[in-house]
Amino acid sequence: MDKNAPKIAILGAGVIGLTVSKILQDELRNADITIISDEFRENTVSDIAAGIFRPGLSFRGPTQEITKRWIDKSWYFWQDILKTREAEEAGVLSVGCYIFSKENYHVTRNRLIEDIVPIYRAVDKDELKIVSEGWRYGSYFTTVKTGCDRYLPWMQKSFEAKGGKIITGKVESFSSLPKYDLVFNCTGMGAKYLCKDDDLVPIRGQVFKVKAPWLKTAFYGDYDAYIIPGQDGIATLGGVRQYDSYNTQVCKYDAAAIMERCVELLPALKNVEIVGQRVGLRPHRVPVRVESEVVSGLKVVHCYGHGGYGVMCAPGTAMDAVAIGLDQLRSSVRSKI
Description:
337 residues, alpha/beta, D-Amino Acid Oxidase, Chain A, domain 2, 8 helices, 29% helix, 30% strand, FAD-dep_OxRdtase, DAO, FAD, D-amino-acid oxidase activity
């Protein structure tokens, strides 16, 4: 490692932090990069997520144009991995998805991705029979799914193989990081306290993990019902979106409601074998924060607040964050000349 190489810290080892690390290493080969986090892999909120590429309207950047750019860049990032031999190890796979509604045709459409996914169409009458009775509207589209139980270890392995370093610890303030030339803040909900950001709010989620090796297609229904297949035959059943809730314990009432909605949507799930239940606090912010700031003389690039869309849209926001960070480094070099 060049002793004059810039020293860079990435705070957070969830899907945002590790995706930033990959893009940064690709762009800046000689940098001395360290990831600092107190949570890794299965202990991150990223690991709970089903990770299907289906952004919702609550995911927003500063402008519509920036939001769409983040989504499009993310889509092609996942497509590039999907084309490689490492796709399975990385947890990235193609999946078909149905979205049904008993009440509203418009909820079966998604203007954010209709122009980029290979297929997005209305269902026919026969497809309405796939699910239980009473569903009046539906769409089918093809997309990708990223399982963070594989993606996070794959990214961490790649990061370390390229000379990246990992430190286990919690950063209480930016002033504790004076030796770094640049810091990427990818701390998710941790940014609420690190940055004193009152605009960052948790949206509580709860899901089942069930054995369903026969399930190859994802299903969405009204009232946040979703059924998403995964690798190794483990599917995710959800869910809830509880705004400003800090409860990290499994709620039996939410569990009963989730299972009832999912079985109503897809009766074949009745008596399915439950592997476990997980709870996570999605870090929600409008807009998602991707911007630079100088804190206590330290150059910081923030990348957090993705809500329930962190897995799918991490790449697009990470690309912008890295571009901002590289501009910061170049400006530092110019100012020293």
